[in-house]
Write a structure and sequence with these properties.
Blueprint: E1 2-5, H1 15-29, E2 34-37, H2 44-53, E3 60-62, H3 92-102, E4 108-112, H4 123-128, E5 132-133, E6 150-151, H5 153-159, E7 163-168, H6 183-191, H7 195-212, H8 226-232, E8 236-239, H9 240-248, H10 250-256, E9 259-268, H11 276-287, E10 291-299, H12 302-306, E11 312-315, H13 324-330, H14 332-336
Parallel strand pairs: 1-2, 1-9, 3-4, 4-7, 7-8, 9-10, 10-11
Antiparallel strand pairs: 5-6
Helix pairs in contact: 1-13, 6-7
Amino acid sequence: MRILVCTDRIGALASADAGAALGRAFVAARPGTQVAVVPMAAGGPDLAAALAALGETAPVVRDPDAEAGHRHHDHVHGDEEPTGVDPASTSVGVGRALAAALASRPARVVVDLTGITTHDGGAGILAALGATGDVPLDAGAGGLAGLSRLDLAAARERVGDTELVAVVDPSELGDMLLGLRGLTSRRGRAAGTDPALMLSTDAALGALAGALGVPDAPGLGAAGGAALALVALGGWVTSGPALCAQVADLERTASLADVVVTGADHVDFATRGGAVVPKLAALGERVLRPVIVVARVVDVSGRELRTFGVEVAYPVGGESDLGSAELTERAAGVASSWTW
């Protein structure tokens, strides 16, 4: 039997450790089982760890002020607090981190934009890389009013031939930058922002996009619009799970497996387990393999699970600090129930 294990964080365990713990349960239940563990994460330290475990040598940079653990989302879900519109916020912090990484001229840099709460269209990133304009680029969207000239020569020289990969939250891959469906409108309406501020901020971001020569497109409104700056410098936008899947050639591995095992700490109908579980469910549908979920807590029915491509979800219980040995022990029953 061949098992692909690709989970999100479970309890105290990041993806690689959680996957290894589940893999041991399947091998113990049926000796001779072949297990492939593929780490995956949406962002933050877990993404850097997953990419390193997959052999990706590109440096991963992120805003030093971004929330640890990829807990912030630009979209408002459930009880999350809306971020609103802050015209003074700037992305210069992640720009400085990127500038430091580029100093060694790497072939690729992964720019983790998850957790960013700024609202400047990436103007601060451009400023940190040496771009200049006829207005300040490091003073937030409020400082972009009247922008008509932008010089990217120094920034492009600093990037050189380095491939820039902008990682955003998977839920933001379709986000537009401007207009009624754009970044400012979404955040402003959710937080009850003054319409006049929303209009002026949207106009400032529109001026920035125009000066960069980048037409609005899905994904450019992600991470406070920071994706716009990286696209203008030749980068491309993706999600953490998609990047991990690409690095690992995950589709090929899944096509060779008999069962795909994924997981998360908590699975419910609203979140569907976060970023990783839906990615694996969709992959299972493409390669025609059954997908099962192992989670510490499951709050979703079997009927609801099947609506997003999962055969069954198993709650293994335990506390929020669930460790490796305990996860293996708790997953033993799950492992022994699956044969092929």
